[in-house]
Amino acid sequence: MRIIGLAGWSGSGKTTLLSKVIPCIVAKGKRVSTLKHAHHGFDLDQPGKDSYAHRAAGASEVLISSAKRWAIMHESRDEPEPHLRDLLARLSTTDLVIVEGYKRERIPKLEIYRAEVGKPMLHLEDDWIVAIASDGALPQASVPVVDLNDIAKIADVLLAEAIPVERLDLSAPVT
Hints:
By secondary structure, this protein is of the alpha/beta class. 22% of the residues lie in helices and 24% in strands. The protein has four helices and nine strands. Strands 1, 2, 5, 6, 7, 8 and 9 form a seven-stranded mixed β-sheet that branches. The protein has a two-stranded antiparallel sheet with strand order 3-4.
């Protein structure tokens, strides 16, 4: 399994880019998984559903299964947030894992940069950023810059720059 991340400030278009680049990578015959970090609480379940009632009653995990998909919801309660290495270990083997968020982790990353967001470029302080996808020219960039609209080129960069998970030192969380 190979891994690469997308890093960028909120509003830079990480999710939009992923929704365009995943089909391009899949068309190359690769199996892709994604791992998305949420900075806020989230709920995939709804009050009134059986699985919600199971969690509300105190179940640590609830597995929901159908003919089309299955999902496990793990209730952390008072546990600390899991580390990236622990989450990666839960994924099925695939060709490529694209991590959205976790911008401080020591994994190769493609920075998504839009000047209009009004935030500084991340690559200036992150040696793990291997390239930038931007909607404008960045002559000051110290890594290669790809046009944010060139989805095929971005797919090529993600595949070329991803590294085997085993090569990463994810033993200690980044703070």
